C-alpha cells in the first residue's frame, strides 16, 4: 500500500489488485479469508468506510497475535514483510513493531494494513470512505461479493 498524496483520489477497479496495495496474491488472499471469516460478525454495526479495516481487526490488534508461528509466517512471506516494513517507515515515520523483537505484533500490523488495503478497493467501502454506513446483511454481502 502506498500513502495518498494531498488531493489524490483512489481509483476503484474491478476486483482486488494485489499490486495496487503492494502485496503478493498469497498475502491478499490471506487478508480476504480473514475478511470473509470476520465481517459477518459485525452485522448491525455502523462504520466509516475508512475505519472498516481497523474495526474488523480489533481482535488481533488487542491480542497482539494472529498467526500461531509469527516468525515462520514472516520467513515464508519475507518479501511481503519487507514491503510492510517499508510501508510503515514511509507512512508512520517508523516501524511500529520490529519483526525481530516482536514478530507477533508485526504480523498483526501486516494483517491490519493488508485488510485495510483490500477493503479500500471495494466499491461500497470506497463510496462510503468519509461517511458512516451500516453493515447490513445486504452491505456485507456486497462487500464479500466484491472480494
Summarize the structure.
The protein is mostly helical and 147 residues long.
Explain this structure to me?
The chain is mostly helical and 147 residues long. The protein has one domain. Helix content is 54%, strand content 4%. A two-stranded antiparallel sheet has the order 1-2. Helix 1 packs across helix 6 and helix 4 packs across helix 6. It is globular, with a radius of gyration of 15 Å. The two termini are 17 Å apart.
Any key phrases for this structure?
mainly alpha; 147 residues; disordered N terminus; 8 helices; 2 strands; two-stranded antiparallel ribbon; globular
Structural class: mainly alpha
Q: What is the percentage of strand-forming residues?
A: under 5%
SSE topology string: HEHHHHHHEH
Unreliable residue runs = 1-13
Show the helix and strand layout.
Layout: H1 25-38, E1 46-48, H2 52-56, H3 58-63, H4 70-76, H5 78-92, H6 103-119, H7 123-127, E2 132-134, H8 137-146
Antiparallel strand pairs: 1-2
Helix pairs in contact: 1-6, 4-6
Amino acid at each position: 500500500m502506498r500513502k495518498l498524496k494531498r488531493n489524490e483520489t483512489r481509483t476503484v477497479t474491478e476486483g482486488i489488485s494485489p499490486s495496487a496495495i503492494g502485496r503478493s496474491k498469497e498475502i491478499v488472499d490471506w487478508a480476504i479469508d480473514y475478511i470473509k471469516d470476520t465481517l459477518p460478525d459485525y452485522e448491525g454495526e455502523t462504520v466509516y468506510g475508512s475505519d472498516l479495516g481497523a474495526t474488523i481487526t480489533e481482535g488481533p490488534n488487542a491480542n497482539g497475535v494472529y498467526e500461531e508461528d509469527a516468525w515462520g509466517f514472516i520467513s515464508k512471506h519475507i518479501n511481503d514483510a519487507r514491503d510492510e516494513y517499508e510501508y510503515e517507515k514511509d507512512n508512520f515515520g517508523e516501524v511500529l513493531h520490529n519483526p525481530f523483537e516482536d514478530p507477533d505484533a508485526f504480523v498483526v500490523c501486516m494483517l491490519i494494513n493488508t485488510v485495510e488495503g483490500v477493503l479500500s478497493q471495494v466499491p461500497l467501502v470506497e463510496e462510503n470512505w468519509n461517511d458512516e454506513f451500516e453493515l447490513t446483511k445486504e452491505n456485507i454481502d456486497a462487500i464479500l461479493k466484491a472480494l
